[in-house]
């Protein structure tokens, strides 16, 4: 992989992969929901939507099809630390992909009519998420676990902010953060590095850098006692979540925590784009045996995501029909307290490392996934972290996992959330011919 | 054993074992990993009469103990290698899929063979998995998207047609199923002649064939009689079903028709028509109208599932309760415009270029290739199907695609299901 920085500050990562006649281009921006102030929650995600609406040199009605004509796919996503856009297509579309990303960086239009039309699309996306009680609980638990840091609000934003935000709010945010000195461009695929870099310079070299960005600097104060919330709504199934403040990706305790999570719920790997689409190997994991194998839960999962600043390690449980959330919580906390007290065994460490070794291989099975990993880690920390992850995981000691468990899994560091379903009051079918 | 010489772009090596099992191997060296896919022609259409959900429950318990290995031993064998074993049930196929490191290929294939051929279905395991399935059914009951889709299929395929049944079954049936019933289903439907074993990845084709022969070669059992599916009767009138779920925020709409079987010669015309209508870029014409121009939905698209018999074309949209009638009217309008005016030559050409151009990307990963090869084998498309696919799509004319639309789509014969915080009677009363 070659790492270059253009004069305007744009960081460029290029890696040749000649296994298929494809190339994947990702453009990453260091802006996510953590950069949003109160009243503008959801603005980074809304900007992401607006940045597919045409540019100065790509008319609105020509956006559709511009990559599809090369058999390609495109997408984008926004989360707490980052916003990113991608295209993967045949290698002869490289110029087209770079052109699109250069336009997105400098020339989006934010037409007022498009802003209004997208408002209802995003509110529809929000409402779709609320249909899922598990997702609703996750949102509320995060908001309870953080009382100061902007990680507390959902990336999609709060409804009232989405209803009130203006075109000027959106465009101002775009102009501030979509600058080359706040971005990383990644190219992976069947390309030559020198030639690809020349094309990157051609498309991006003329974009002017932006002003230095002043970041929000809130540090979440240490949690001093257990927090709880209960959502009581009509539903059919009980959900339980426990969230602990956890180390950021560059923290020395992050990888020991990743191994601890593998022991508790099975290893997921480190690819936010692909890892969570396949369930982890977890049949012998501690929490699976304590909850699912005992019939208390139909599923249990753990989540430790690589983030720039300390976020959450969370465990999610779906209670089986007829199991009280109190019973499920007791079984869960008993196991978490046990691992905090006693740590893990050498055999568990060996198994967790084997799982993570396999998952890191599986995470890199396409040019799209490889490019994601390079850009993601460069954006939330630095790209060296992913390159060195296999060796650093192999070097983790059982004592380090025990220390991480003691530091993170304390009762005063946790927030417990329940979705306690009330009986559903309707649901009658109505048909008409 | 007989072998056929590879001819296609993918060039999979195909072997038929003496007992009828088919083995497909494709070498791919991108990562030191192998995807294994074992598909049995024993999907949910094989559920015993009156007992939908039996195959699904078997799929939940089949990997929890075999004749020679306990559930704990299977768990350890998978987890210690970082392997997630996924069992899926569609209408026609019962499939075990996993990806493993290449160094683990032989023992993992042997493990999967044990699971597939000789499940033990222990009583304790069965009780635990029943609890999981019943919980999943309860979750489905609270999910407007699932309610809309399942209800649409029940209306399109009425009178107990296997395509119209809920794959998971009902709480009552799942609760009543016994170990003996699951083992009887396995004994009836699982046989080597029904098996296609696919391995794609960093492993020699000869090693795949040798290993598959060792694992499955000794399995001796005649194939069961094929299951005859009832004929599919297209709807003759428009039907509408509202499922009020007032505890939800968004409404899911499912709007559909029965179409054609996968072997119908017009399949590629249907495929292109559906792509232009409800998939291309963000949801084709439907996306242009309902998401992009009107801003009514985060998602809207159509999906074609041509199958062994006439499968459905289903349009799906998620909208706010206030926009339900507008969204349904917009779908009606787009369907009407499609059958009256047809696609434009540009639309057809764009979809064609996209579908042909996307083949390398669609066949990039081991898992994607394995899935493609299973489809190829199930429908008898031929080992060179990936190489022939561009010419099959090229041969479709504008009139072919428009005729496909006219043949299957008609707002007056649409079946519409609306599930979510919406009650049309209440709206009318306001």
Descriptive report:
The complex is a heterodimer of chains A (433) and B (430). Chain A has 433 residues and is α+β, with helices and mostly antiparallel strands. Chain A folds into two domains: 2-204, Cytochrome Bc1 Complex, Chain A, domain 1; 227-421, Metalloenzyme, LuxS/M16 peptidase-like (Cytochrome Bc1 Complex, Chain A, domain 1), CATH 3.30.830. Chain A contains 14 helices and twelve strands. In chain A, a hairpin with a 5-residue loop joins strand 1 (2-5) and strand 2. In chain A, helix 1 (43-50) crosses helix 6 (167-177) and helix 9 packs antiparallel against helix 10 (325-342). The longest helix of chain A is centred in the N-terminal third of the chain and has 19 residues, at 112-130. Chain A is globular, with a radius of gyration of 23 Å. Chain B is an alpha+beta fold. Chain B has two domains: 2-216, 2-Layer Sandwich (Cytochrome Bc1 Complex, Chain A, domain 1), CATH 3.30.830.10; 239-429, Cytochrome Bc1 Complex, Chain A, domain 1. A seven-stranded mixed β-sheet of chain B has the order 1-2-3-7-4-6-5, sandwiched between helices. In chain B, strands 8-12-9-11-10 form a five-stranded mixed β-sheet, sandwiched between helices. In chain B, helix 1 (54-61) crosses helix 7 and helix 3 (105-117) runs parallel beside helix 8 (205-216). Chains A and B meet through strand 5, helix 3, helix 11 and strand 12 of A and helix 2, strand 6, helix 4, helix 5 and strand 8 of B.
């Amino acid at each position: 992989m070659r790492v270059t920085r253009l004069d305007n500050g744009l960081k460029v990562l290029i890696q040749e992969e000649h296994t298929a006649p494809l190339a994947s281009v990702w453009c990453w921006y260091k802006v996510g929901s953590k950069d949003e102030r109160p009243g503008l929650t959801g603005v980074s995600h809304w900007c992401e939507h607006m940045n597919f609406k045409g540019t100065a040199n790509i008319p609105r009605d020509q956006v559709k099809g511009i990559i599809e004509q090369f058999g390609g796919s495109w997408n984008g996503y926004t989360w707490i630390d980052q916003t990113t856009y991608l295209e993967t297509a045949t290698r002869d579309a490289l110029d087209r992909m770079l052109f699109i990303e250069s336009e997105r960086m400098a020339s989006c239009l934010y037409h007022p009519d498009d802003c209004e039309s997208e408002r209802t699309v995003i509110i529809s996306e929000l409402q779709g998420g609320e249909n899922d009680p598990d997702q609703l609980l996750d949102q509320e638990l995060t908001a309870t676990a953080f009382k100061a840091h902007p990680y507390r609000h959902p990336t999609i934003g709060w409804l009232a902010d989405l209803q009130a935000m203006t075109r000027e709010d959106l465009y101002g945010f775009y102009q501030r953060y979509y600058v080359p000195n706040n971005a990383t461009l990644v190219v992976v695929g069947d390309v030559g590095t020198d030639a690809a870099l020349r094309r990157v310079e051609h498309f991006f070299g003329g974009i002017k850098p932006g002003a230095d960005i002043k970041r929000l600097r809130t540090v979440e104060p240490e949690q001093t006692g257990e927090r709880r919330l209960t959502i009581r709504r009509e539903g059919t199934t009980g959900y339980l979540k426990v969230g602990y403040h956890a180390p950021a990706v560059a923290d020395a305790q992050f990888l020991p925590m990743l191994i601890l999570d593998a022991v508790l719920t099975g290893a997921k790997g480190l690819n936010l784009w692909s890892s969570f689409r396949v369930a982890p190997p977890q049949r012998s994991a501690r929490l699976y045996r304590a909850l699912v194998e005992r019939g208390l839960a139909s599923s249990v999962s753990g989540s430790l995501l690589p983030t720039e600043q300390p976020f959450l390690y969370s465990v999610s449980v779906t209670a089986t029909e007829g199991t009280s959330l109190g019973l499920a919580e007791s079984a869960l906390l008993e196991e978490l307290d046990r691992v905090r007290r006693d740590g893990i065994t050498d055999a568990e460490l060996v198994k967790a490392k084997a799982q993570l070794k396999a998952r890191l291989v599986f995470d890199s099975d396409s040019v799209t996934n490889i490019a994601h990993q390079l850009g993601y880690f460069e954006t939330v920390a630095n790209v060296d972290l992913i390159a060195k992850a296999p060796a650093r995981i192999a070097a983790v000691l059982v004592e380090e996992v025990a220390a991480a468990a003691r530091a993170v899994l304390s009762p005063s560091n946790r927030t417990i959330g329940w979705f306690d379903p009330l009986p559903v009051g309707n649901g009658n079918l109505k048909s008409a011919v | 054993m007989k072998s056929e010489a590879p001819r296609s772009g993918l060039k999979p090596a195909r072997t038929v074992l003496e007992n009828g099992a088919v083995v497909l191997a494709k070498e791919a060296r991108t990562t030191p990993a192998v995807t294994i896919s074992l598909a049995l022609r024993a999907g949910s259409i094989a559920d015993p009469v009156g007992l939908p959900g039996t195959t699904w429950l078997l799929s939940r318990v089949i990997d929890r103990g075999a004749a020679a290995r306990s559930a704990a031993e299977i768990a350890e064998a998978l987890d210690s290698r970082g392997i997630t074993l996924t069992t899926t049930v569609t209408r026609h196929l019962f499939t075990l899929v996993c990806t493993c490191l290449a160094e683990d290929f032989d023992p993992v294939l042997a493990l999967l063979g044990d699971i597939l051929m000789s499940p033990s279905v222990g009583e304790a395991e069965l009780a635990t998995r029943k609890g999981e399935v019943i919980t999943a059914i309860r979750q489905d009951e609270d999910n407007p998207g699932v309610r809309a889709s399942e209800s649409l299929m029940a209306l399109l395929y009425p009178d107990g047609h296997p395509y119209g049944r809920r794959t998971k079954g009902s709480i009552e049936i799942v609760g009543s199923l016994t170990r003996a019933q699951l083992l009887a289903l396995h004994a009836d439907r699982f046989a080597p002649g029904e098996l296609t074993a696919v391995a794609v990845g960093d492993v020699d084709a000869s090693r795949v064939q040798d290993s598959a022969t060792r694992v499955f070669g000794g399995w001796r059992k005649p194939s069961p009689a094929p299951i005859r599916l009832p004929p599919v009767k297209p709807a003759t009138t428009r039907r509408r079903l509202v499922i009020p779920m007032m505890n939800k925020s968004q409404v899911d709409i499912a709007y559909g028709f029965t179409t054609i079987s996968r072997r119908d010669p017009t399949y590629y015309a249907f495929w292109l028509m559906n792509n232009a209508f409800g998939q291309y870029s963000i949801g084709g014409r439907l996306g242009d109208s309902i998401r992009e121009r009107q801003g009514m939905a985060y998602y809207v698209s159509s999906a074609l599932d041509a199958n062994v018999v006439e499968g459905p074309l289903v349009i799906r949209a998620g909208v706010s309760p206030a926009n339900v009638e507008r969204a349904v009217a917009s779908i009606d309008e787009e369907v009407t415009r499609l059958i009256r005016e047809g696609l434009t030559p540009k639309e057809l050409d764009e979809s064609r270029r996209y579908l042909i151009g996307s083949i390398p990307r669609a066949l990039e990963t081991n898992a994607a290739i394995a899935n493609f090869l299973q489809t190829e084998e199930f429908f008898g498309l031929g080992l060179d199907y990936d190489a022939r696919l561009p010419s099959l799509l090229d041969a479709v004319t504008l009139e072919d695609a428009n005729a496909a639309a006219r043949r299957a789509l008609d707002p007056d014969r649409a079946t519409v299901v609306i599930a979510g915080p919406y009650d049309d009677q209440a709206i009318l009363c306001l």
